[in-house]
From TrEMBL:
The chain holds residues 202 to 520 of 520 of the full protein. This is GMP synthase [glutamine-hydrolyzing]. Homodimer. It catalyses: XMP + L-glutamine + ATP + H2O = GMP + L-glutamate + AMP + diphosphate + 2 H(+). It is an enzyme of class 6 (ligase). Catalyzes the synthesis of GMP from XMP. GO terms for molecular function: ATP binding; GMP synthase activity. The lineage of its organism: Bacteria, Pseudomonadati, Pseudomonadota, Alphaproteobacteria, Rhodobacterales. GO terms for cellular component: cytosol.
């Protein structure tokens, strides 16, 4: 795409102008936005960029390995992999309130990021994959009074706290443009097309208290669900799909036995920018087959429901 080719050249020139020969750190989440930002900046300034990937223990099945593998092996971008899952899961123990969860994760993230960033001598810039919709959403909400629905996890106060200047090369782009730019930069299609994943990760898909046990069950169920969606060729039609594990156990029967296990909810929505969304109209066959697979393949779940709420009035995530 020639327009993205031109955008890429222009963006690289701007990054070089802004940064000169100084150092940049970039928080990598494994999502499309921060990944595209990192690859673009790496192309502009090479090893002046170091990425920090904070693993908070709330990622999907095999996600940390995939992200770290891709950046180290394919791009050779200097990368610090900070496995801090014990810290995050420890601090989250016993917390059930959604806002308190988000704030705890946000606070720890800043501490951890700062700790690792301090190891990078003389960094002066912080790179972020902020998009145009992030810029507008934080300014106003449908023109009405500014209401905080959810405390968004981003590294908001970080630049000032660390005395860093921001590099935000995607600030003028919408999601589909970021994907086009990512393709232009040679990121694999499988990666570019990935559904968005929230900063607080699986924490907000596990309403109520988080335990390692629930997270393990959730990861397995989510992997089966996404596998089903891919096998039916529906992945690219859907903006976002995931499983939420519910804080309730229900009675079931498996062979000759009574079971008492968790219920889960499947979520899938279509959307243009995440601001509004419609639930995805799966066929009954698809839903039935998926429920059967999850219950047979994932120990700990014996009931599957489908969330048919659109946004508004629902939000995409459960917390
Ligand atoms: P909601 O649940 O508010 O989500 O309808 C809208 C979109 O934003 C994602 N989301 C987040 N992304 N940090 C993020 O980076 C967050 O704290 C966060 N909370 C929600 C959500 O996955 C959906 O794509």
């Amino acid at each position: 795409d020639w327009t993205m080719g031109a955008y890429r050249e222009e963006a690289i020139r701007k990054i070089r102008d802004q940064v000169g020969d100084r150092k940049v750190i970039c928080g990598l989440s494994g999502g499309v936005d921060s990944s595209v930002a990192a690859v673009l900046i790496h192309e502009a300034i090479g090893d002046q960029l170091t990425c920090v990937f904070v693993d908070h223990g709330l990622l999907r099945l095999n996600e940390a390995e995939e992200v770290v593998g891709m950046f180290r092996d394919n791009y050779n971008i200097p990368l610090i992999h900070a496995d801090e899952s014990d810290l995050f899961l420890g601090e989250l123990e016993g917390i059930a309130d959604p806002e308190q969860k988000r704030k705890t994760i946000g606070r720890l993230f800043i501490d951890v990021f700062q700790k690792h960033a301090n190891d990078i001598d003389g960094a002066e810039f912080l790179a972020q994959g902020t998009l145009y919709p992030d810029v507008i959403e934080s300014v106003s909400f449908s023109g009405g009074p500014s209401v905080t629905i959810k405390s968004h996890h981003n590294v908001g106060g970080l630049p000032e706290k660390m005395g860093l200047k921001l590099v935000e090369p995607l600030r003028e782009l919408f999601k589909d443009e970021v994907r086009a730019l990512g393709r232009e930069l040679g990121l694999p299609d499988s990666f570019i097309g990935r559904h968005p994943f929230p900063g607080p990760g699986l924490a907000i898909r596990c309403p109520g208290e988080i335990t390692r046990d629930k997270l393990d069950i959730l990861r397995k169920a989510d992997a089966v669900y996404i596998d089903q969606i891919r096998k039916h060729g529906l992945y690219d039609e859907i903006w976002q799909a995931f499983v939420a594990i519910l804080p309730v156990r229900t009675v079931g029967v498996m062979g000759d036995y009574r079971t008492y296990d968790y219920a889960c909810a499947l979520r899938a929505v279509t959307s243009v920018d995440g601001m509004t969304a419609d639930y995805y109209p799966f066929s009954h066959e698809f839903l039935g087959e998926t429920a059967t697979r999850i219950i047979n393949e994932v120990q700990g779940i014996n009931r599957v429901t489908y969330d048919v709420t659109s946004k508004p009035p629902g939000t995409i995530e459960w917390e």
